[in-house]
Amino acid sequence: MTRAYAAWIDRHRHRILVASFAIVVASAWLASQLSVEADLSYLLPPSAESVRHLRAIEQRARVLGTVMVAVDSADPVARAKAATALRARFATLPPGLVSSVDFDDAVARKFTWEHRWQEVPLADLAKARDALRTEIHDAHLRADPLYVDLDDPAPASSDAGKLRDRLHDAERDKDAPAELVSHDRHVQLMVLRTAYSSGDIAKDEQLLEAVAAAIAVVHRDVPTAELGFAGDVVLTVAEHGAILDGMLLAIAATVGLVLLALILYYRSAVAVAALSWSLVVGALVTFGFARVAVGHLNLATAFLSSIVIGNGINFGIILLARYQECRRTGLEGVDAIAEAIGSTLAGTLAAALTAAVAYGSLTLTAFRGFRDFGIIAGVGILPCWIAAYTVLPAMIAVASRRGYLRPRPEPAIGRVLGWLAPRRPRVLVAAMVVVTAVAGIAAVRYLANDPFESDFRNLRSSSPAIDAENHWMETVDHGFGQGISGGFVIAVNRRDQVKPLVDTLRAHDAGKPDKAKLFSRISSLEDLAPSDRPARLVIIDELARMLTDDKLEQLEPEDRADALALRPPATLAPLTDADIPDELAWPFTEADGSRGKLVLAMAGWGYDDWDAHDIVRFARDVRALDLGPGVLLGGSSFVFADMLDLVDQDGPIATLASALGALLVVALIVGRRRHGAITMLCGATGTLGMLALASAFGLRVNFLDFVALPITIGIGIDYAANIAARDRHDPTLPIDQLLARTGSAVLLCSFTTIVGYGSLLLSRNQGIRSFGAAAILGEATCLVAALVFAPALLRMKRRTPSTTATAS
Question: 533 exposed, middle or buried (CB, 10 Å; 0-12, 13-18, 19+)?
Fold first, then answer.
């Protein structure tokens, strides 16, 4: 049957290659449309509560990005000069990029003064009214010549005094310098808000280029001032750039090292070109499929390209190595292709299916970081295998007919592996059993002792741009206090729901020390345009009637002056939400123009927003408040909490599914007897060894590197399956020859896969690097199991003595 298939390949070789070219063009066009979504919410299913709330809020809120530009100088003259120059340059920024630029808080001060009476809390107004009523009454009594006060003088009420002080402060502040300058007078701040929704990377980059150009010019003119920027726009662009740069670097490193290894192994540029073309077909089909099936790459799938290259090439390596082996024995043309296909088909198919099952097991999870990875890699591994048994044989047929593909001597690495073949298999097997048992104990202890990474600082990206953003963010926090940016949004359906909601939130923290409070800050339009303003106007009107000229005539001049300072204007227009200036109302303004239904809040100082345990605790505490139906919570803390819950829930499901699927594939293809059992045992040894080494090296499990475990199960089957399948096909082939021929190809497969995973260590994202490190450990243990444990078991179970004679 394989002879007929090889003949068909040979007969239609040109048509196959033309078809492969057409497939590559179409797949490349699809793959070019893939975008990279660095937002962690894309790692969760759309049905997750945090994602549903976040998407609903994004539809309602004006999700504007911010760029905080800071000028730092110990010289106040230089600082002011640089800030003024920046202000002039920012005024010329394209209107399509910037909606507003805040240099000072003059608008807030002016608003407070103009509406000073309606800004006073209702309770304070009531206390001041009662205090003034008492003071005026007592003053009238004292004015009566027949009045004799037999009681001790009552202490003057401070409530009216507090109101006087509040009004005096508002009057003083309205004319005070309003620039945003830090307490130590070293840092001056300007806040730019985008005119577009945050997340538009192209516009973000355009804005930052314009800001950086302005900063460069000003710094040249004022060299004694340091200038920089921070904010969500800066961090988004820096994170996106770090991921893309790491992905491109990983691809370049993988391609370069894989090509070098292939040339050294096959010593034929034509053979490497044929193998590379078949990989290109499979890889581009994979990412074309990703565009159709998923639509984008996320933080977990962005580096699949290097993994697909490193792992997808394995099938072609095994087939091409076997073809070269056949040519060295004298076979040519269709016969050599047929023998290469026939002797490698079962092993590579088992490897492909177990890898597909290992990846595919991730699709059983709701966590999109796993699911998307499983869809793309699980389905994508099959086009690589199909291309290896269609496109590669066609390329071989064309090249061999034209004399471009000649037999090459056996690779030197094969002779080394043959020399290392086990001479005392029983001793080696006993040692490996002990090692596997110890690894199993270490793995159980590792998994039982909470191996998950709890410090999310260890999962951040690192780059010069991110380091600069962190520096300037710390500068801003130090100068103006933490909390100037960040936080989360609470959204309600009606404006009248805001006050009860805010009252509930503040009542929860009433009387608690700062470290015990759930929130460090709560702000809403209610703070600027309170919904109880009609009641405030009633009291203000009472104050005006109490402080008329005729009622103040009998007061002493000093008391009369104080009372007049508290007299409200004769006409006071009711303050409405629409009266709030845009500069103050924008955080609470929705896309449809409505105001006041959004509340901004920040976690309390007792929560570390980089600690997984604190993040989960904060999200749980907020959700436990029972804020009512229809209330939406949008913020990274809730996304993180849901993500951690899903990883904890779905990780064991994916691992179990991968193990069961791998066992089924091995039983169906490799067999349920000796060869299947050896394959499964080597897979278990490799997997347990990986966990033991992860424990020894102190690797922590996170939402990115958890996939290394189910993947390692597939890899553990892959290499051992090829060794066992070759022994099953050629049962008389001596073990040293089996290692020299198939073992050397398996070693090359492992090298290319290690290169693919190793390229992840070049990523600037620490989570991606952790995934690469864990996967490399799995590669190493599975390779040792396949090249040491499997040959020893095969030799020990051989019914015929091993010889060094070469089998046909």
Answer: middle
Instruction: Give long-range contacts, CB 8 A cutoff, 24+ apart: 474-482.
Output: 475/70, 475/72, 475/187, 475/228, 475/230, 476/68, 476/70, 476/187, 476/189, 476/230, 478/182, 478/187, 479/70, 479/182, 479/183, 479/184, 479/186, 479/187, 479/189, 480/180, 480/182, 480/183, 480/187, 480/189
| Distance in angstroms (rounded) separating the CA atoms of residues 626 and 608 | 23
pLDDT tops 80 at residue 456:
no
Q: Tens digit of pLDDT for each residue in 25-79?
A: 999 999 988 887 766 677 778 888 888 888 888 788 776 678 899 999 999 899 9
3-state secondary structure of 172: helix
Give the Cα separation of 264 and 356 in Å (integer): 29
Residue with tokens 């190493």: 780
- Radius of gyration (Cα) for the chain, nearest Å? 36
Q: What is the pLDDT of residues 471-530, one digit of tens each?
A: 888 888 888 765 555 578 899 999 889 989 998 999 999 889 988 999 988 888 888 887
Rounded Cα distance, 132 and 629, in Å? 43
Q: Is 452 exposed, middle or buried (0-12, 13-18, 19+ CB in 10 A)?
A: middle
Q: Which residue, among 122, 178, 177, has the nearest Cα to 532 in the 3D structure?
A: 122
Those residues whose C-beta lies under 8 Å from the C-beta of residue 179, and which sit 6 or more positions away, are 80, 83, 103, 104, 188
CA 801 to chain centre: 56
Cα gap 208→234, rounded to integer Å: 7
Query: Cβ–Cβ contacts within 10 Å for residue 60, how many?
Result: 18
d(CA 697, CA 595): 54
Give yes or no for residue 22 having a pLDDT over 90. Answer: yes
Rounded CA-CA distance 437/689 in Å is 10
Picking from 230, 229, 235, 228, the residue whose alpha carbon sits closest to that of residue 199 is 235
pLDDT at 4: 93
**DSSP letters of 209-221?**
HHHHHHHHHHHHH
Largest separation between any pair of C-alpha atoms in the chain: 136
Q: What is the pLDDT of residues 710-747, one digit of tens each?
A: 777 776 677 888 888 888 888 888 888 888 888 888 88
What's the pTM value of the predicted model, to 2 decimals? 0.68
User: What do you get for the CA distance between the two ends of the chain, in Å?
Assistant: 20
- pLDDT tens, 137-191? 666 665 555 444 444 444 445 666 677 677 767 666 666 656 788 888 889 998 8
Q: How many percent of the chain have pLDDT more than 70?
A: 88
Residue 413 in tokens: 């690495």
Predicted pLDDT at 172: 67
Q: Which residue has the higher pLDDT, 795 or 117?
A: 795
The answer to whether the beta carbons of residues 554 and 644 sit under 8 Å apart is no
CA atoms of 742 and 748, how far apart (whole Å): 10
3-class SS at 117? coil
Residue 779's alpha-carbon distances to 194, 605, 753, in angstroms, are 47, 43, 8
Nearby residues of 271 by Cβ (< 8 Å), 6 or more positions away: 262, 320, 324, 399, 405, 408
Question: Quick one: three-class SS letters along 35-72?
Answer: EEECCHHHHCCCCCHHHHHHHHHHHHECCEEEEEEEEE
Q: Regarding beta strands 35-37 and 296-298, do their DSSP bridges make them parallel or antiparallel, or are they unpaired?
A: parallel
Q: How much is the pLDDT for 701?
A: 77
CA dihedral 295, 300, 303, 306 (to 10 degrees): -100
Distance (Å, whole) CA 534 – CA 69: 40
Is the separation of the CB atoms in 240 and 469 below 8 Å? no
pLDDT at 801: 45
Give the residue-averaged pLDDT of 228-246: 82
